[in-house]
Amino acid sequence: MLEINNISKSFYRNIALDDVSLRVNKGEIYGLLGPNGAGKTTLIRIINRIIEPDKGHIRFNGDLMTEKHLGVIGYLPEERGLYKSMTVQDHAIFLGRLRGLSKKDVQMKLNYWLEKFQITDWRKKRIEELSKGMAQKIQFICTVLHEPDLLILDEPFSGFDPINVELIKQELIEMRAKGKTIILSTHNMRSVEEICDRAALIHASKKVAEGRISELQEERKTGLYAVKFRGNMIAFVNALWAGFEIEDKDILGDDRFVVRVKMRGDNQFEDLLRVLIGQVKIEAAWEVLPTMQDVFIDLVKVKEEVKND
Questions:
Q1: Distance of alpha carbon 304 from alpha carbon 309, whole angstroms
Q2: Contact 196, 296 (CB under 8 A)
Q3: Cα–Cα distance between 96 and 89 in angstroms, integer?
């Protein structure tokens, strides 16, 4: 759906984006990851034609992107911007009309979302009466009223409590199931692991990696496995030989543990299970993949080492 080709942007000799190219497929949740100041928001503003790139271009469904494509995009900026003196309903009508909806359509769609979020009594409340989290929920609703084909969310979970974070995540998953495309810009790596299909990692204005979440994790796994068992810890340790190394452990109770073990040499997962069966009661065992935060730190470390060389 979206092809970002060789985008560069500088502000007063400060490079915000340096030759960044990305591909966002239709019907996926795409994570745009990186620390604050990496260039994520600058890229989003270029996609939304708020600012122009110094170099490069963007294609939307194969065509060079123009103003006409903005009608099918929903954008939730990191900076929350609601008119505090307006009521929730008036605000929705105002923004909906800007998106080309009739007043009747806005009211119908607003009814749907207020009922879905179980907040119908907020309709006549002024924005200034709402908490930060409540106002953010209203801004999310206003962003999706016109049912955009591409939804761009910049740090959408900041300010939300855990319950509302899960609520918004489930909405995004439902939208993906309906064929919508979502770009999720965040520095919250855990959220990306849970709902994103693919992601790009941006650091210091450059793209350092792009791919499926599972592939990015798989490429950087370290041979670490976890075993949850019931039994004697000494018996567990004695069952292992030199081909295995205990990294750490969690004590779940008097005789229940989770131990993370690293393989040495050519030993396999089956070898680990073979030496433990009969010594302790194994309740679960699994391969420990690196988190997206681990992946990002590793990529940045490699990039810095190459730069220093």
A1: 9
A2: no
A3: 10
Q: Are 90 and 142 in contact (CB under 8 A)?
A: no
Which residue type is seen at 281? K
| Banded model confidence at residue 161, pLDDT cuts 50, 70, 90 | confident
- Which pLDDT value is given to residue 307? 59
- Portion of the chain with pLDDT greater than 70, in percent: 97
Give yes or no for a contact between 27 and 180, defined as CB atoms under 8 angstroms apart: yes
pLDDT number for residue 304: 63
Are 224 and 247 a contacting pair, CB within 8 Å? Answer: yes
Rounded CA separation 58/44 (Å): 12
* Terminal C-alpha separation, the chain: 38
Query: What are the CB-based long-range contacts (under 8 Å, 24+) for 246-255?
Result: 252/228, 255/230, 255/231
Q: Which CATH superfamily is domain 2-218 in?
A: P-loop containing nucleotide triphosphate hydrolases (3.40.50.300)
How does DSSP assign 111-125, residue by residue?
A: HHHHHHTT-GGGTT-
Close Cβ partners of 67 (under 8 Å, ≥ 6 residues apart)? 49
Does domain 224-287 match CATH 3.30.70? yes
Could you check whether 2-218 and 224-287 share the same CATH topology? no
Give the confidence band of 295 by pLDDT, cuts at 50, 70, 90. Answer: confident
Domain ranges of the chain: 2-218, 224-287
Q: What is the pLDDT of residues 189-199, one digit of tens each?
A: 777 888 999 99
- Number of helical H runs and strand E runs in the chain: 10, 14
283, with CB counted inside 10 A (0-12, 13-18, 19+), is middle
Q: 86: burial class by Cβ within 10 Å (0-12, 13-18, 19+)?
A: middle
Predicted structure pTM score: 0.85
What residue ranges in 55-160 does DSSP mark as E strands?
55-60, 63-64, 73-76, 150-154
